[in-house]
Amino acid sequence: MLQAEQVLSVQSTSSQPLEYQLHRKLGRTAAGRQTWLATDLSSNEPVTLKLLAFNPQMQWDELKLFEREAQVLQALDHACIPKYRDYFSLDQEMGGGVPWFGLVQEYIPGASLQERLENGGRFAEEEVKDIGASVLKILIYLHRLSPPVLHRDIKPSNIILGEDGQVYLVDFGAVQSQAAVTGVTFTVVGTSGYAPLEQFWGRAVAASDLYALGATLIHVATGVPPVDLPHRENRIQFRDRTTLNPYLITWIEKMTDPALEKRFSSAQDAFDQLYNQPVAIETTEGAKFRHVPKPDNTLIYIWRSPRTLKLEIPPRFERNTFRTLALVLVSLMITRTMFMGVLRLLHNPLILLVVFLTIVVLILLFVASETQVTFEKEKFTIERKLFGWSYLTQTGFSEQLMGVFIHHENYATMVKLHCENYSGEYTYAIAAALRPNEAAWIAHEIQDWIYSQSDDEVISDR
């Protein structure tokens, strides 16, 4: 048997003899796998040493997974995944009568989410969100590799909160790569409560990692393992066990939807939606949103009654003259350069006139277009106008409206409507080039009108 402070002399894959001194066992599995904190005596650096005992009772699939983990780790290069260092075998004499296979990785000082939970640790909402965002960044990297790399065992014990403040994803013992692309058979792995049904059917995909992360966040937010929470139609029921804001709860529910096609399409999509949530809201018995005052000097007009909500958003040049002029000047400079280039290539006056008029119209649409948005019980309408002439009208159904988002993109703030129907998800941008307090006001007015249960028939000018 292996013991603490034992020194293992091994022949590495680089054909160099190396020595590792064992210190403390970090974990073990029933399949004969052990994880140790050790020291690489050649560099005097702490390392994580994963060892697999080769015995007659061992399943060959265990060895295949162990070798696959080593192969995949060698190809990974991410700051929040412990780096691969070495792979070796240990003879029977040094292994206490049993041959061993060894995998050496960078050691990450810190504590796992599981350790914090077992020690009574609790996580604030921002911590839950930060953990989700950090792991999603790692999954974006893994899933974009060719072929994609699936972790297949995301759970609290495999997420480390490093002493440096970073969040690390560890233990790639269930990793799947080439099999996901070529269709060859592979071992069904995963941890009950965290792995989705399709993974236990041997059909793991990228969205399976999203489910596992969502289940992990449920454990972190509630303090209760997902397997111990109530389930209804295979959905984890946790809303009444947490004080997370409603949007974040809905986001986690989408991550853990038992229907694969109803989860986020990718880790990037999940990450984007996590940070495009509606502005923070306060509720009274879940019905009324807190009032956000109308910003000073805004030219945006909102009129509401219990049955109708109307927004009138004037052109950009009226709302922000200085920025609009700057953008127009930049656009004109670019246009002039393009126009001169076209002029050198073409000598047809008609074509030049069409190009010129097209550019003029685009600039006018950008700076002089106004928007009117009308919400009614059954539908909403977005109408774009130029000098009073309606050139674009969009209509959606109110029952498909899932939320109102404040979106920041390229230093611009805009308000978007998020909708969902049987064919998928879609968004409508209803206002752009806003000041942050204008965006917050518009978003809250829309949310308040949609969710308000007031029977007050008095028309109010907001």
TrEMBL record:
<dbReference type="InterPro" id="IPR011009">
    <property type="entry name" value="Kinase-like_dom_sf"/>
</dbReference>
<keyword id="KW-0067">ATP-binding</keyword>
<keyword id="KW-0547">Nucleotide-binding</keyword>
<dbReference type="Pfam" id="PF00069">
    <property type="entry name" value="Pkinase"/>
</dbReference>
<feature type="domain" description="Protein kinase">
    <location>
        <begin position="20"/>
        <end position="275"/>
    </location>
</feature>
<keyword id="KW-0812">Transmembrane</keyword>
<keyword id="KW-0808">Transferase</keyword>
<dbReference type="InterPro" id="IPR000719">
    <property type="entry name" value="Prot_kinase_dom"/>
</dbReference>
<protein>
    <submittedName>
        <fullName>Serine/threonine-protein kinase</fullName>
    </submittedName>
</protein>
<dbReference type="InterPro" id="IPR008271">
    <property type="entry name" value="Ser/Thr_kinase_AS"/>
</dbReference>
<feature type="transmembrane region" description="Helical">
    <location>
        <begin position="349"/>
        <end position="369"/>
    </location>
</feature>
<keyword id="KW-1133">Transmembrane helix</keyword>
<dbReference type="GO" id="GO:0016301">
    <property type="term" value="F:kinase activity"/>
</dbReference>
<keyword id="KW-0418">Kinase</keyword>
<keyword id="KW-0472">Membrane</keyword>
